[in-house]
Amino acid sequence: MIYNASAECMDRSTLESLQLERLQQTVKRVYENVPLYRERFDASGIRPGDMKSLEDLADLPFTVKDDLRQTYPFGMFAVPMRDVARIHASSGTTGRPIVVGYTAEDINTWAEAIARTLAAGGTTAGDIVHNAYGYGLFTGGLGLHYGAERLGATVVPISGGQTKRQVQLLQDFGSNVICCTPSYALYIGEVAAEAGLDLEKLPLRVGFFGAEPWTETMRKAIEERLQIDALDIYGLSEVIGPGVSYDCLSKCGLHVNEDFFIPEIIDPLTGTPLPPGEKGELVFTTITKEAFPVIRYRTRDITSLTYEKCSCGRTFARMQRVSGRTDDMLIIRGVNIFPSQIESVLMEMEETEPHYLLVVDRQEKSLDTLEVWVEVSAEIFSDEMRKLGALQKKVQQELEGILGISVGVKLVEPKTIARSEGKARRIIDRREL
Ligand code: DLL
């Protein structure tokens, strides 16, 4: 279902003129209202009137996370505080949080972006939406909430945590739609199974999962366990929150809300823009945001773009699912490794559970080691040692074949690895200690 066909299916030339007009307005607005942008533009000799075509965007300087830290808390806001209707923040792992602001109109835009997302998975006004993304400063909870309301659906604002209660209410309320991180979806599935719930009998139909990287194999695992369609939803606080891009039921890439955000792919090392189809770092320029516009913001997420029309009829550019981040790429003995590569191997194996942890360490002679901890199913774990030993070898061989380095594998009992109610933490890097 298409929520707003006049936007989502706009022909490319109309869309591009709209983008250019909005880009020109945004560049003018940030030049006039945000000192950091004015200084940057002046230093590169750029005048707000220089944006004559969309190609000129590539002349603008990048914005990076550290710029937002340096201007903490409100230095990047482009409107007076009295016009800021809401603030969100993303905690990140180190340093000051990134603080973002919204005008009432920005919240409107965001609700529209999410309404499009939910509708693309078939959600309608008659549905009950179980929203287990965290409410609060994190953008997941309130972001999905406003979008579901915009669509006219019934929202259950349960937030994360108290998983048994989540399962109970999913059943009692007969929710049709679930929203949470993919790792939490698996955990909910696990708790539901333990409670003896037959998920096939629930009216649950579709889920919108994001806020952390996941793989196609994880999609299949969730779809099987919860008996639903598992759709990807992408976004980041700096750009607006969830709803920057979204899967449709053809599941062949996420449609970027291009009338609000212009995506680019760049080479993360040189900053050079890359052509469609090539993998690199995703960069966004917001073209409608009022309180917190960003110009060429480097997301650190790795993906590629295609401009081919989707079979669903939407004309927006599609991004492949995010395959990793430039900053969570592990470099082990000089080899680049992405957690998603490991996840796909583990998910393909029947004997292992979709719960894992990567432990990176440094040996005395400064040799880095990677140990993969993975849960095995209860039946396997109670099997004889010999069988466990064989399984461990098998997992190790598969991983080494894909990664090209030696890895340690530790099979652990079911439920040993901590479950997350929000974003999963899957890497322990002891090298920094
Ligand atoms: O995670 C917004 C969000 C909430 C998205 C709910 C989807 C659903 P941040 O906390 O600012 O915002 O984290 C943004 O999370 O740069 C990606 O690295 C990662 N991320 C978000 N969605 C996906 C996804 C929210 N679908 C950062 N696939 C981003 C892979 C994702 N990574």
List the helices and strands and how they pair.
Blueprint: H1 5-8, H2 12-33, H3 35-43, H4 65-70, E1 86-90, E2 98-102, H5 104-120, E3 128-131, H6 139-151, E4 154-156, H7 163-173, E5 177-180, H8 182-194, E6 206-210, H9 216-226, E7 229-236, E8 241-246, E9 254-256, E10 261-266, E11 280-286, E12 297-303, E13 305-306, E14 318-319, E15 324-325, E16 330-332, E17 335-337, H10 339-348, E18 352-362, E19 368-376, H11 378-381, H12 385-403, E20 408-412, E21 427-429
Parallel strand pairs: 3-4, 3-5, 5-6, 6-7, 18-21, 19-20
Antiparallel strand pairs: 1-2, 7-8, 8-9, 9-14, 10-11, 11-12, 12-15, 13-14, 16-17, 18-19
Helix pairs in contact: 2-3, 5-6, 7-8, 8-9, 9-10, 10-12
| Percent range of helical residues | 25-40%
Number of helices: 12
The second-level CATH architecture of the largest domain is 3-Layer(aba) Sandwich
Biggest β-sheet: strands ordered side by side in the sheet: 4-3-5-6-7-8-9-14-13
Residue-averaged pLDDT? 94
Outline the biggest β-sheet.
9 strands, mixed
Q: Please report the first level of CATH classification, the CATH class of the largest domain.
A: Alpha Beta
CATH fold-type name of the largest domain: Rossmann fold
Estimate the strand proportion: 15-25%
The CATH superfamily of the largest domain is ANL, N-terminal domain
| Terminal-residue CA separation | 50 Å
Task: List its salient traits.
433 residues, alpha/beta, Rossmann fold, GMP Synthetase, Chain A, domain 3, 2 domains, nine-stranded mixed beta sheet, four-stranded antiparallel beta sheet, 12 helices, 21 strands, binds 5'-O-[hydroxy(phenylacetyl)phosphoryl]adenosine
